[in-house]
Specification:
With 415 residues, the protein is an alpha/beta fold. The chain contains 9 helices and 23 strands. The strands form 5 sheets. It has an 8-stranded parallel beta sheet with strand order 10-7-4-20-17-14-12-11, with helices on one face. A 6-stranded parallel beta sheet has the order 8-5-21-18-15-13. It has a 4-stranded antiparallel beta sheet with strand order 1-2-3-23, covered by helices on one side. Strand 11, helix 5 and strand 12 form a beta-alpha-beta unit. Helix 5 packs parallel to helix 6. The longest helix is centred in the N-terminal third of the chain and has 65 residues. 38% of the residues are buried.
Length: 415
Amino acid sequence: MRFRVQGAASLLITSLLLLLILVVTLSNYKRVFYQIKRAQNEVWAQQKFWLTESALECAFSIISIMKKIPDDLKQQCQAVGIDADTLTVSQTLPTAIIAKVSNNKQISKQLRLYNDRYAGIIQSRSDLVFNGDFSFTPDARQTNEEGDWLCKLVSYQANLWLNGQLTNHNLDNSTPPYSDFPADQTCADTHWTQSVLQSDITNDENYDLFMDRFDVPRSKWKQLMYGGAFYQIPQGLPDFDNVLPPSTEIVDCGSKIVAAIEANHDLIWLYGSCDLKQSELDVVNIELAIEANSTIEGIIVVVQDGLFSTNSEQSLRALIYQIVTEPSAFTPSEALWSATEAHQLSPVPLGLDLSQLIFYQSNRFYAQAGYVLDSPNLTALFSADMNGLFKGDLIDVPLSKIRDTRWVIGSWRDF
């Protein structure tokens, strides 16, 4: 009998040990099963993240190739097998591509489009003088939290003098700043100058106007001039490795610009002084040349190391960029100004030093794509009542020839 009890006890102990082993095994299995499931979820999430990344890259590639943001961006990526639930591009600065796949976290990455830049119709490192009453439709590239636009007229880095009224005409459906601009928009009250200057006219921090506009540092302007995109006037300048001769007046400047446009050039680099004369209908003829050329919507004219003057009363589908590359590169003088039609017919007001004046328009001429006045320690004078309509995308095509769309460093993951 004693042996039977001992056998039963051994059997019981063995069963308990087996049960304990089974419990431990099941516990470990449950933990292992959880780890396997978690790993599978992480792989699934990572796959969705990779798919979201690929949507960003797809959108970037399409925008870079097309030089614009297409309306069917999501559909174009779907056509190559990348199916994102959300694939959009922000409409205000900073420009960002936003993508989301299934229930995965939405991710975005900032990019700099070829036509992204600081806002402003007139951007200047020169001292600015407005002598008259001026009304402009504004540039608009960002909104506030309420959805109103942070409009911008003038961005200056030196001094600003007003002898008259400078007015923001506000946004208008009939004259939007960009062709794809949404309808029924308005400037924020803080960025809408009427009788008192607001934040649409600002003394901004010292940023590189040249870099902002052309994506090339100002110190490397020569690389842009000789890069092959710009048509040079006059022709026959020394090559890149040689020193440029002193700049002079470009005789028949208007006619030479017309000839460049007729030869299908929309990027024009003037080395020297340019006087666009009303008596010779220079601006009218340039505008007619643009109108007659189906490949050109607007032009960029760089005026290097020389005066720019005009007494024209027409508008021009152009951006005027004036630059004095070094203080020693060019010095204005009374003799140089005396040869211009603008000064002859409408003398520069007394009190302004002609040896400091670099830019002068004495009539209602208006560059519709804006002005960049990059001549430090010199003065630019607008001296006539003027109403201007800003059209920022007139120069999208020429800009696309010298600027690329690129990711912004620090916007997402940098490698």
